[in-house]
Amino acid sequence: KYEAFKEGAICKDPPEYYNYTVQSALEILYIERKIDESPICNETMCNCTISKEKEKVKVNCSNKGLVKLPGAVPYKTKVLDLYNNNIKSLNIDHINVTLWSDVSFLYLNNNAIDSLKGLEGTWLLRNLVALHLSNNSLTEIPIHILEQFRGGLLDEMYLSDNPWTCDCNTVRFQTWLQDNYRAVRNFQGICCSRDSVFSNQPIHRLKKSQLCPQQEQLVNYLDVLNGLIAITICIIIIKLSYDYWLQKRTGKLPKFFSLNL
């Protein structure tokens, strides 16, 4: 049952759709039907719930022993919780792009993920608002993958409790963390692996010279060399300017141009 108003028809019955617009109620009913039809939304697989206010779906597939990302999710899935499974790869070649198009909150804590290469250059990486990757097997993330989050929607990222490698390659990762401190949460938990020289030390607190002492020393040598070259160039320019001024004033060539005949 519904009543018509200027802004559209408003539901009066059944009670759970009271004061919803007919359009919203029909959309919710359609989403509920899609949830019922989804193969992963059942008692043995995942718990699928709908937020009627936002007309979005949350899918909870935690603790289900999954070894890869589910290929299909219900229509309008916004939040996908895959906490505490056995997922190792984030390869998305097998997923249904249309059904995944609304996924923007991806929770992958407590898995076995050791790389983000599967997300490299993908639409999913750019769509994500929240990405939780705490307590996985990540040792490094190439900077070119991290840079792909730039300009995207990412607002919340967890990377703590991973066995991060700490060496010269970590310097750029450290810089990226510092540049994205608003989005990256739990800085204190992003630590070097126990096998590292800097065992369990927060990466953001380490000095670049500690992470890569040879690189730091090389940079210092190059700075000295560049300084000497700059000074030499300045001396040559000053000498040439002086000789030019002297030649104009006296008509004599500089001494090192004169010939003893």
UniProtKB/TrEMBL annotation:
<keyword id="KW-0130">Cell adhesion</keyword>
<dbReference type="InterPro" id="IPR001611">
    <property type="entry name" value="Leu-rich_rpt"/>
</dbReference>
<feature type="domain" description="LRRCT">
    <location>
        <begin position="162"/>
        <end position="213"/>
    </location>
</feature>
<keyword id="KW-0472">Membrane</keyword>
<dbReference type="InterPro" id="IPR032675">
    <property type="entry name" value="LRR_dom_sf"/>
</dbReference>
<protein>
    <submittedName>
        <fullName>Protein halfway</fullName>
    </submittedName>
</protein>
<dbReference type="InterPro" id="IPR000483">
    <property type="entry name" value="Cys-rich_flank_reg_C"/>
</dbReference>
<keyword id="KW-0812">Transmembrane</keyword>
<dbReference type="InterPro" id="IPR052313">
    <property type="entry name" value="GPIb-IX-V_Complex"/>
</dbReference>
<keyword id="KW-0433">Leucine-rich repeat</keyword>
<feature type="transmembrane region" description="Helical">
    <location>
        <begin position="218"/>
        <end position="242"/>
    </location>
</feature>
<keyword id="KW-1015">Disulfide bond</keyword>
<keyword id="KW-1133">Transmembrane helix</keyword>
<keyword id="KW-0732">Signal</keyword>
